[in-house]
Amino acid sequence: MTRVRLPPERVLELQKHHAERLRHCEPWSAATPWRQELNFQAETYSVLELWAGVVASDAAVDALEPGQFVDSPARRFRYCVRLHRRGQALLTWWGSQVGTVVFDGDVIIPALYQARDPDTPGTGYWNETPWMSLTPGEFITLRPGTRMAKGKVVIAGLGLGHQLIEVSKRLQVKRIVLVELDRELVEWILPVIRPHVRKPLEVVIGDAYEEIPKLHADVALIDIFPGYGDGFRRVAELAAASPHIKRFWGWGTSEMTGLAQR
Ligand SMILES: C[S@@+](CC[C@H](N)C(=O)[O-])C[C@H]1O[C@@H](n2cnc3c(N)ncnc32)[C@H](O)[C@@H]1O
User: Fold this and answer.
1) pTM higher than 0.90, yes or no?
2) Residue among 135, 142, 180 whose CB has most ligand 1 atoms within 8 A, to mutate
3) Residues near 27 by Cβ (< 8 Å), separated by ≥ 6?
4) For site-directed labelling of 170, which of 4, 19, 49, 195 has its Cα 20 to 30 A away?
């Protein structure tokens, strides 16, 4: 790794800017528009904890102690609560732009990890990056899809059920069909999420690419991709293969086409 040594005056400038951000934090709101620098008051950041009493930790996911996680029965998924420290930057994205979020105090961030496929690079038991974590970046980038939801909605990708819950709160939404690849994830976590879902829910366990083309719906929201914007082409192909679904959205796609509101 090449280290870049910054001149001392530039380091001082960056430290001053960071301190300034921490002095000008606004209350968190799920409606906050995306900006390259977002600064939130920690005490206003409240997130849904699916399992009460899981102790938050900033240790690596592989190093968590009992009491700091809940694992699925066959140990393919791990729910834990990340302790995110004051002033540490979290990444956000918007189309091709990258930004950061800081909080003026420690916050907790529930997260869902999947066991690493032994054929993929890495050493730990768990994948380093979670499938889902309740960060402002996730909330803000899932929001354009949630706002499109009406009538009968297909949601692909369960994760922590955040989008499922948010979609179910909308008056315009009548029914939801969840399509999730992993049976173990559904059987373990959906009973905990279900009480927060306010609309009739049908669950299809299977590959979204095979199952969605068979469905009829007003809108399909697709969030099955590990990286932001990864699914641009795949969502377009899925839409073309699904004649009975009126509108499609994929995580990151609306921002990339400039169709999303901030
Ligand atoms: C990023 S998470 C979804 C997060 C979710 N939007 C939320 O709000 O919590 C991706 C989910 O998609 C599922 N998944 C991955 N590939 C899939 C596929 N081909 N078909 C259906 N589900 C898939 C994963 O098992 C995981 O639950």
Assistant:
1) yes
2) 180
3) 40, 41, 44
4) 49
